[in-house]
Amino acid sequence: MATTASTTKKKRNVAWNGTMDGVFLAALKNQIAEGQETGAGFKECAYNAVAQEVSDVLNKTFTKDNVKNRLKTLKTTYRTLNSIINLSGFGWDETLCKISVDEEVKNDYLKLHPEKQRFFSKRYPLYKEMKAICDDDYARGEEKSKKRLNPALLSELHVVSSSINRVADAIISTGEVHSLPDLKDALLNIAGFAKGELIDAYVYLHGHHKEAEAFLSLDEMDRVDMLRHILRRLAMQL
């Protein structure tokens, strides 16, 4: 069995590749499933366990510091990718596993951010796996969804639901509302947003029927992306 940080002195930096990253991200996911991650990050024992698992699978020694440093690098990479993807005119190509954007739009962006060139020329086949681990809003979402909601959260959801209902009634009274019966429930199922933000998004989507239909057609993760984009747009209008 390969040795790890608990039994060896500090090792030199590791040159990671795609295969190693795949094993690494899978090991982190195992630790999440075992409850070894908190809102503040992974527990120290989790880093040791990941280092041991990666060492065993790849038959190469990895230390706790190797694991921590790689996670920090992947988080930086993911957040940069995600910030670009969420810009207007940009997207993600699921087939090619790279940023999708019109050539002219990309060139205009790179004139302002030449240091980001590498993010357009490289493919990221582990993007979804990175998202599950590195995105502070999405990570652990699947595990959290399996837990029962505490009374305080249920009360807050009730307040948000009531507020949205009042807004919906006001919109309906104008006689200009479209038929979007699932919109309220779709918004309530999204965690991590303030009551006021959800109400603003509800009002906005009711006034933009095509975007509302697009929102309802998305899966949960993509709805969060779109909701963020809408809220940024609304903030810019203030």
Structural class, by secondary structure, is mainly alpha
Report the portion of residues in β strands: 5-15%
Q: On the 0-100 scale, what is the average pLDDT?
A: 78
Distance separating the two termini: 59 Å
Number of domains: 2
Any idea what the shape is?
globular
How does this model look, in words?
- The protein is mostly helical and 238 residues long.
- It folds into two domains: 127 residues, no CATH class; 89 residues, no CATH class.
- A hairpin with a 2-residue loop joins strand 1 and strand 2.
- The protein is built from twelve helices and four strands, in the order H-E-E-H-H-E-E-H-H-H-H-H-H-H-H-H.
- About 10% of the residues have low confidence.
- Helices cover 62% and strands 5% of the residues.
- Helix 1 runs parallel beside helix 6 and helix 3 packs across helix 6.
List the main descriptive attributes of the protein structure presented here.
single chain; 238 residues; mainly alpha; 2 domains; two-stranded antiparallel sheet; 62% helix; globular
In short:
The protein is mainly alpha-helical and 238 residues long. Helix content is 62%, strand content 5%.
Outline the secondary-structure elements.
Blueprint: H1 18-33, E1 37-38, E2 41-42, H2 44-58, H3 64-85, E3 90-93, E4 98-101, H4 103-112, H5 118-121, H6 127-134, H7 141-145, H8 151-173, H9 183-188, H10 195-207, H11 209-217, H12 220-236
